[in-house]
Design goal:
CATH architecture of the largest domain: 3-Layer(bba) Sandwich
Radius of gyration: 25 Å
Distance between the termini: 89 Å
Number of domains: 3
Largest sheet: 7 strands, mixed
Helix content: 25-40%
CATH class of the largest domain: Alpha Beta
Mean pLDDT: 95
Length: 506
């Protein structure tokens, strides 16, 4: 039987979660003579790979050393979006006077209740990823324990040897902890521990201005925590469109987030119950005093303890090395998800898992380079992007035409009081071919899919222009971009030609 892992805090919701993702008393099955596929890691990539392969008739083993569901369910997408939703309810209440709603004072909001709701919905969602579902409904042999290669075609777990025709490494990644003097001694939170909080930190330093840092900085600031966001670069979200990151930065500052940009952390010291961060910024030393520190500076692949060298699988600090078809240096072993991908998103892991199944089991030749990968930062407003940004095009020597429509031009955004944002598209110059797009809007993540569909299927902006969009919706901003493109085609020559025709008709 496996050792239990206590998920903190010890509540009925977390006990339900544990019963699903690491059930007490779980007994590993007897190993099959030889598996079609053995999957190490039961995060998004591993779960999709195992379920898909088993559904197609393969004999599949799935190994998980920690919690079924991986980061997404337990420490990432699911709990963070539940907390973000609660923080949006707070923001809506506070800003409700414009809509005739009053009484949204800070005293009305209960951080503990919001976290309890997060734990409840996480436990409910965890049923989909549960060990029993994969065993009883999907027919997968589920092994709880550390899996490690014993050779090029065998994996050991909990004293058992699993032989395979093909294997998949889907062990994901974890929060990167920067080597800051004194940080370990002072203590810190990561995405793996912050969702165990039951009380709101009154003062919180967030190290890292990427998606995780920005999302949680805004959410906790809305609950009333005094947030200091520390970023080495001159702006947050450096991968995003410049205007988008500047717009979000302004929104965060308005909501009380203190920005320490172009700042290097020299050291951290614990003094009583307080934690002091010493920063170097513009040649000056600055002290930031907080109660807790949250780390959000990137991801480190989980390659330890896998025995990769015994299977001849090349890896480095960035993870397992794979080809465009997700094959490792061992021709019978593939990888998918955060362990091998530079795009560390749940939806990317899902897409790669589908490629892995086709290539590993059915001699497919699907390539990850063919994927169109959108992403979204779930702040308020959200920032969603797909394809190239303008600087990508310049670096690749591609000439583009860029069109932008502000949300303030869209009736539904005005009606909703959500005019902060814009939609922007980059076209190959002289054509309507969509190279990339960025949307800044409260629900940008729901809106970017139209561009993703167009890029994936080779549809130009003109195809969007002839598609009827319901009025009034904020997504109408995308059709407005197509209208803007059509206006660029009305050159003086064409306009004179049309005017001449109409004059002749009178």
């Amino acid at each position: 039987m496996i050792d239990p892992i206590a998920i903190q805090p010890d509540t009925p919701e977390n006990r339900e979660l544990s019963a699903n993702v690491r059930p007490l008393g779980w007994i590993n099955p007897e190993s099959s003579v030889c598996y079609n596929l053995v999957v190490i890691g039961a995060g998004t990539a591993g779960l999709i790979t195992a379920a898909g392969a088993a559904g197609l008739g393969a004999k599949v083993a799935l190994i998980e050393r920690h919690l079924m569901g991986g980061d997404c369910l337990n420490f990432g997408c699911v709990p963070s979006k539940a907390v973000i939703r609660a923080s949006r309810a707070i923001a809506d209440a506070r800003n409700g006077s414009e809509f005739g709603v009053s009484g949204g004072s800070a005293a009305d909001f209960d951080f503990g209740a919001a976290m309890a709701r997060m734990r409840r919905v996480r436990a409910e969602i965890s049923r989909h990823d549960s060990a029993r579902r994969f065993r009883d409904e999907l027919g997968v042999d589920v092994f709880i324990g550390q899996g490690a290669f014993a050779g090029p075609s065998a994996i050991q777990v909990a004293g058992k040897t699993l032989r395979f025709k093909k294997a998949a490494v889907c062990t994901g990644a974890r929060a990167t902890v920067p080597p800051i003097p004194g940080l370990a001694e002072a203590g810190y939170l990561t995405n793996e521990t912050i969702f165990s909080l039951t009380e709101l930190p009154l003062r919180l330093a967030v190290i890292g201005g990427g998606p995780i840092g920005c999302e949680l900085a805004q959410a906790l600031a809305r609950f009333g925590s005094r947030i200091t966001l520390i970023e080495q670069d001159s702006r947050i979200l450096v991968r995003e469109d410049d205007d988008a990151s500047v717009m979000l930065q302004s929104a965060l500052v308005r909501e009380g987030v203190e920005m320490q940009l172009k700042a290097n952390i020299l050291s951290v010291e614990k003094r009583g119950s307080e934690k002091i961060l010493r920063l170097e910024r513009d040649g000056q030393t600055v002290e930031v005093v907080v109660d807790e520190i949250l780390i959000g500076v990137g991801r480190t692949p989980n390659i330890e303890g896998l025995g990769l060298e015994k299977a001849g699988i090349l890896n480095d600090r960035s993870g397992v090395k794979v080809s465009d078809t997700l094959k490792t240096s061992n021709p019978n072993v593939y990888a998918a998800g955060d362990i091998c991908s530079p795009h560390k998103f749940t939806h990317t892991a899902d897409a790669q898992a589908r490629i892995l199944i086709a290539n590993a089991l059915f001699m497919g030749r699907k390539k990850t380079s063919a994927l169109t990968i959108p992403w979204c930062t779930y702040t308020d407003p959200e920032i969603a992007h797909v394809g190239m940004c303008e600087r990508d095009a310049k670096e690749n020597g591609v000439e583009v035409t860029t069109l932008t429509v502000p949300l303030s031009d869209i009736d539904r955004a005005v009606l909703d009081g959500e005019t902060e944002g814009f939609a922007r598209v980059h076209l190959r110059k002289g054509t309507d071919k969509i190279l990339g797009a960025t949307i800044v809007a409260r629900h940008a993540g729901e809106m970017i899919n139209e561009f993703s569909l167009a890029i994936t299927n080779g549809l130009g902006l003109s195809a969007i222009g002839v598609t009827i969009h319901p009025y009034p919706t904020q997504a109408e901003v995308i059709k407005r971009l197509a209208d803007a493109y059509n206006r660029t085609r009305l050159t003086p020559f064409v306009k004179n030609l049309l005017s001449g025709w109409l004059k002749w008709q009178r």
